[in-house]
UniProtKB/TrEMBL annotation:
Involved pathway(s): Lipid metabolism; malonyl-CoA biosynthesis; malonyl-CoA from acetyl-CoA: step 1/1
Keyword Repeat: no
Phylogenetic lineage: Eukaryota, Viridiplantae, Streptophyta, Embryophyta, Tracheophyta
Gene Ontology MF annotations: acetyl-CoA carboxylase activity; ATP binding; carboxyl- or carbamoyltransferase activity
GO cellular component, one term: acetyl-CoA carboxylase complex
Limits of the CoA carboxyltransferase C-terminal domain: 121-375
Catalysed reactions, as listed in the record: N(6)-carboxybiotinyl-L-lysyl-[protein] + acetyl-CoA = N(6)-biotinyl-L-lysyl-[protein] + malonyl-CoA
Sequence segments annotated as region (Disordered): 561-586
InterPro entries: Acetyl_CoA_COase_a_su, ClpP/crotonase-like_dom_sf, COA_CT_C
Pfam families: ACCA
Uppermost EC category: transferase
Domain of life: Eukaryota
The enzyme's E.C. designation: 2.1.3.15
Protein name according to UniProt: acetyl-CoA carboxytransferase
Amino acid sequence: MASVPHCPASDLLRSSSNYANGVPLHSLGKSRIVPARRGSAVVFARIRKGKKHDYPRPDEIDPNAKGGHLGYLSQFKPLKEKPKMVTLPFEKPLLDLEKKMMEVRKMADQTGLDFSDQIITMETKYQQAQKYLYTHLTPIQRVNIARHPNRPTFLDHVLSITDKFVELHGDRGGYDDPAIVTGIGSIAGRTYMFIGQQKGRNTKENIQRNFGMPTPHGYRKALRMMNYADHHGFPIITFIDTPGAYADLKSEELGQGEAIAHNLRTMFGLKVPIITFVIGEGGSGGALAIGCANKIFMLENAVFYVASPEACAAILWKSAKASPKAAEKLKITATELSKLKIADGVIPEPLGGAHADPSWTSQRIKTAVVEAMNELLAMDTTKLLQHRMLKFRSIGGFLEGEPLDPSKKSNMKKREKPVKQEEELVNDYDLEEELERLKQQIFSSKDESLPQPLDMGVNVMLEKLKKEVDEEFTEAVRSMGLKDKVEALRMEVSRVSVPDQPIDPSLKDKIEELKEDLNQGLSESPNYSTLKYKLDMMKELYKVKKISIQNGKCASPMDRCEKLDQESSPEELEVDTQEELHRSLV
C-alpha cells in the first residue's frame, strides 16, 4: 500500500480536484497517512467506506411505478409470502366444520356422487354458527381478535383509503422511530396529516417496528407532525394500535413520560380538527398520547384499556389466568366504551374480524372520516377547541340503580354506622352474663313454675337481640349487593299479596332464589362473624325460653335439659332463627 507524504491538515481537506495542492479524497480510503516522525511515535489513520444506502436512488426508479420517485422513502412493501392462517381458540368449532365440508367435497370429486344437498346444508350450518359466534363474543375473545397477527395495520388502512400518501420521517432529534408512522395523504381532494402506530405483519417486521410500542422519539416525531399540520391547516387523523409505550430503561432515560405528557398538552391546543381511530388494541398512555381528539371511533373488535387484562388479573387476582374476568370488569370493548361516552362511534367489521375483509373495513373507516370531518370543519376555531375540551371533561358515565358487586363493595371504604342510643345497645358481655344467670335461676328453682318476671326478662332480651340481628343482616345484604333486589321483591310482595290467600308460584320461586343467594353469599359478608355470634345467642335464648315454658313438665333441672334437647333439635332452632331473619326482608 502506498504511503502519502506528510502535508498540513488544511491541504488534505482541500478540493479533491486540486491534485497539485492537495490529495484526492477518494484516495484516503486506500492509503495510509504517515505523518512525520516525532521521536519514536508513529500514527496511522484509515477512513472506511460508508455503507451504501439500502434504498434505490431516485434515478433508478421507474417513473411509471406506483408512488413515483418518492416511493423509495417508505419501508412498507407488499409481503412476498401470503400470511399464515391463524385460528384462535374459540374458532376451532368453525375450523372443524370447514374441514368436514372439505372432506365431503373431496369425496364427491373422488366418487363422482352428488353430495350437493349435504354440502349446502353444511354451508348453511357453518354460516349460522359463524354469525352466532361473532355476535356473542366475550370481551377476552375481542381482545384476541384485536391482537390477531393478520389484522390490518395502520399503513394497510391508509394506503387503501387515500388517493396519495407520502410518508414523513424523523423527530429532528436524531432518530426515526419505526413504531410510529406519519405522513401526508389526500382523501377526495382534501389533505390530511396521518399519524399512527404501526405493528408488523410478520416476526421480522414486528422486531423492526418494536411490536408497535413507540419510544420517546416516536412521540416527538408525532408532535412535530402535529405542529406542522397545525401550521399549514391540515386536519389530523390518528390511528391507535399499540399494547403501550415502550417501557425499557433507555426510553425512561430519554423522557418517555414527558414526551407523552407534552403530546397530551399540545393536542388540546391544536386549532385543526382531530379524529382518532382505534383499529386494534389501545394500551394506556401510549395510546392516549395520540388520542386526544374531537371524535374517537373504534372498530367493532378493538379494545381500549388502561391496563391489559393479563396485567389487571395479575394485580387483583395474582394470576394471569383470571384475564377473562378482568376483561369483563374493565369494560374495554367498543360497545361498553360507547355507552360510557368514551368512544363516539363503533365501526362495524365483517364476520371473522377485520382481517377477513380488510378493504371492506377500510372503506367503513373512509366513510367515517368524511362524515366526521364535514361536521368538524364547519366549526370555527373557538368552537372546535371548546368541543374537544368538553368531550374529555364529560367523558365517562355512571350506572345508577344497579346492584353493587360484593367484591367491589368489600374493597371500598366502609360506611360509618350511625351511633346507637345507649339504651338500644346490647353488650355482648352483659348478654352472656344475663343468659347464664337465667339458666342458673331455672336449674336451681325447686318450684313447679318459674316466676313471671323471668319470662319477661327473656322476652326483653330477645326483642333487643332481634333488632341487632336485623341490623347486622341488613348490613350483610347491602355488602352482598342484594339490597335493591330485596327492596324490589318486598314491593312486589306488598302489591300482590292478599290476606288468607296463597303466594303466587312465580313470586314464591323468586323468594326461594333470593334465599339461595343469601345462603350462598352470607359467609362472605364482612360482618358474618358478628352476625353468627348473635344468632348463636338467639338460639340460647330460645332454649331458655322453651325451658321456662316446659318447666313444670320435668321432674328435675337435668330432666328438663334432656327433654328439651330431645324435643328441640338444633335444626329446629336453626329454622326458628332463619324465620326471624327473613321476617323483615321477604
